[in-house]
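Collaborator request log, item 7. Partner lab (contact: R.S.) asked for a structural prediction of FtsX-like permease family protein to inform their binding assays.
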Amino acid sequence: MFAYYLDLALRSLRRNPVLTALMVLAIGLGIGASMTTLTVFRLLSGDPLPQRSGKLFYPQVDPRPAGAHDLPAQLTYIDAMNLWQARRADRQAIMVGSNVKVKLPQAGARSVSLHTLATTTDFFPMFGVTFLHGGPWTAADESGKARVAVLSRSAYERLFQGRDGMGQSIRLGHRDFRIVGVIQDWRPAPHFYDLDREGYGQGDDLFIPFPTSRDLADLEITGYSLDCFGNTTDDTHLENQPCLWLKFWVELDTPAKVSGYRDFLANYSREQQAQGRFTYVGPPRIALPDVMQWLDQNGVVPSDVRLKAWIAFGFLLVCLMNTTGLLLAKFLQRTTDISVRRALGASRRQVFFQCLVEAATVGVAGGVLGLLLAWLGLWGIRHSPAEYADLAQLDIATFVVTFALSIAASLGAGLLPAWRACHIAPALQLKTT
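Returned to partner:
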């Protein structure tokens, strides 16, 4: 029966090509615009680590004197080291990023600028980073301030150009670091773990142990966000300065551990108040947001992207209203045909279903057009100067959603016209023809 209704729908659509083209165009424009903006919105507001984000948390501890309003986005060196050495989480990682000049130790080798993350060894398993060769440095390397490094795949290929670089040395500043691992290029979008960087830019190229970076002043780990308060004496030696500059993430795999860690942060703050380091009076100023809460707290998704998404769906609604009007006009023009079918025994349900099949056929054609328009829209975004431009890709999920939304939209637009068509009085229409 469906094949019969589909054949009737195709015949009907071919009978009036201009009206059919207008309906397909209306659906296609609405779907194309909404899917383009939806893809960008999903890219910018999506979960950067869907399998892990619910277990990753960003401890916030405020050491500033009274008068501060929002909680700081970073930690002082003293607080970061105290939390890290307490080992109250399943995993924890300190980090600070910077651009560093790197080259091979051979004479005449040219240096390249690599974005370097000084961090601790738990970073890699905590964030699920995939290794192609080797592995992370060990806790012994970390405590011994070993000069070891992990490269991203693209940085590894850029430096060694097809040669085997595992176990070889690269030079940072005046020091040689041994390559112990190579990771698959890791680029969560957005860069939730280090919001000092462009939220959707390229990933980190080089990873070195955080204790080693602080032991070697000539590495020139600079360029990070720095927020000092109180009396500071030297911003090149930040270990004992009242300055906020370090990121710190922890992994907690159960709600009980999350609650326990929050209590630990509160007790830690009270202890620092008692010692006179935290001079404000009142309850501890702490927080423990997870990944998505952290992104929302920092307003990572641009407000104009949200606005564009609403505008696009509003445009889709207008297109659906136009399609509804066109379908209504089309079905009411066929009152004689519908009356003959009813007189020959077709039920209202059958007429209703026939009209919906015709509307769905328009939706499929509109979906094809919408998919093409969405592809063109994303192509335009990829050639724009936006930092997330190269991430705007048409994936399988977008493909499926495009057709599902197109068919659902066309069926929604066809409900009223189909209902009106199936309630045409056949006797009255046949009498007047």
